[in-house]
Amino acid sequence: MTLNNDKTKDTETDTDGNSNSTAVASIGSPEEAPADFDKAIEAAGFGRFNLTLFVLAITATCANMFESTTMSYILPIAECDLHLTLTDKGVLNACAYAGMIISAIPWGYLSDTKGRRKVLVCGYFLTCICVLGSALSQNFIMLVTFKFLGGLMVNGPAAVLYTYLTELHGPKYRSHVLMVIGLITSLSLMLLPVMAWGIFPRDWGFVLFDSLEIHSWQIFLFVCAMPTLISGLLMTVLPESPKFLMSQGRNVQALRMLQRIYRINTGMPLDTYPIKSLVLEVPSREAHEDEVVYTIEEKTEPVKQQSGTLLESLRAGMLQMRPMFHKPLLGLALQCFTMQFTIFMGLNTIRLWLPQLFSSMADYESQFAGEDVSASMCTILEYSVNKTAETLTNHEDACSVPKTISIDMYLNNIIVSACGVVGYLLAGSIIRLIGTKSLLTYGLFISGILGLTLYWSINSLMTIIVSSAFITVACISISSLMGAVVALFPTQLRSLVVAIAMMFGRLGALSGNLLFPVFIQIGCLPPFVMVALVMLIAAVLSILVPNPKKATFT
């Protein structure tokens, strides 16, 4: 499979000097008339190329989720090796998000100006290097540094992946793409505790190069680097998004990419691809009845590729971003960004602290087995705080025996992730029944109620049930929101908007994970009030989001 054709020049000209890179509508049969992107991608068919995209979706989604989630699994096992305080644990959970926040806008700009493919290739290879660095870390500072750099690198491909996959599917399949990614996300989260279960209990410690001590949790991080490496390798043979190329006026190159996709899907020769030319994209137009269209300035002539200076490139990029700061896009963008912040703050706070809570729950139940004690949420939080403090003040005694994690910790996390998989399988039917916007709003209201319900959890079984429901519903709501963002913004701004939305989401996750240990030390109720409040704020804002069904993919 050889799809990469980045070096193809798209500056062919006629004798009159006009660019041939963009087709203009001409008189002829309907089959010969220039096709828009939706018609062109549908004509390319659905087959082996889409299966390759599915493999990419699996490895890339695993890479994205592993980078932001692995710390939550190593905290209980690495507590003695790294001398971690409760605050240190919060910092390790949050540091990757700090890197993601800083890099969001630069990655979005690069994706919308230089292309989706370049960001995905470079981003995943650089992330792989950072993950391997974190696996070799010997202390808290080294681990925080590499996790921060990993977040810096992975945020670009993580945000662009949504756009890239939707732009390579026709209208018939596009609405299902984000839900499939959501399903894969849940499967990847279920894979993490399975991997931890298989690696952590093993006595695989050794010394590398006579200086680097390697423990089982570091081997776990080595394994977690594989999806990033595989994703980078896959992207080297996949094409640039034809939708992006058309938005840049590079229609000759876009048509060649579509022809290659057609050949892979159908096995037919390139010249049998039914589309012979592509329309010049003119996104600005009047909306049809009952339709919401957010677009940017009209292109009145084909776009010619220019090789300017870096300053000229930045100036062109700023001009492309200008509609983001005017009505109607500005209000819609701020609304989506605020929702992303609050949802991630609530969801990722609970999601990333669950392994620690389940570990403390298993230790507590093991220590007081046979006694008439209740493993309520408040009891577990108090036990966790005291246990961490004891490990620090009495390190030699507390860490004299290798740390063992109860099998219940792994099973509980697997159950939570499995519930997420089931939820995504049902999400498609629910969307057809009530619609994307209704699912978003109802899901966020339910998440808010479930977040507060965790405070009243009276035993481990109730904690598993409520946390599973909370994470499942909240994850589906995020997929619904990202689907709305992709549908409501124009192609030239789509990656930038998704990147900024993800930046606000990471900022929310960072804030939540830093505040959670602080609130725990204040009392049992404050952390769950925080989670419930932010989810309910997002639910109220979701009522004002335009219905994606009435939006056009532009």
**Strand line-up across the major sheet:** 1-2
- Provide the low-confidence segments as ranges: 5-30, 282-308
| Spatial extent as radius of gyration | 25 Å
- Structural class determined from secondary elements: mainly alpha
Secondary-structure element order, as H and E? HHHHHHEEHHHHHHHHHHHHH
Number of beta strands? 2
- Distance between the amino and carboxyl termini: 29 Å
Mean pLDDT metric: 79
Helix residue percentage: 55-70%
**Proportion of residues in extended strands:** under 5%
Oligomer description: single chain
Shape: globular
Number of helices: 19
Major sheet details: 2 strands, antiparallel
Question: What does this molecule look like?
Answer:
The chain has a two-stranded antiparallel ribbon. Helix 4 packs antiparallel against helix 5, helix 6 (171-199) runs antiparallel to helix 15 and helix 16 (436-453) runs antiparallel to helix 19. It has helices at residues 37-43, 48-82, 86-114, 116-135, 140-167, 171-199, 216-224, 226-235, 242-247, 251-266, 310-321, 329-367, 377-393, 395-398, 407-434, 436-453, 460-488, 491-522, 525-542, and strands at residues 206-208, 212-214. It is an all-alpha fold and 554 residues long. It has 19 helices and two strands.
In brief, what are we looking at here?
This protein is mainly α and 554 residues long. It has helices at 37-43, 48-82, 86-114, 116-135, 140-167, 171-199, 216-224, 226-235, 242-247, 251-266, 310-321, 329-367, 377-393, 395-398, 407-434, 436-453, 460-488, 491-522, 525-542; strands spanning 206-208, 212-214. A hairpin with a 3-residue loop joins β1 and β2 (212-214).
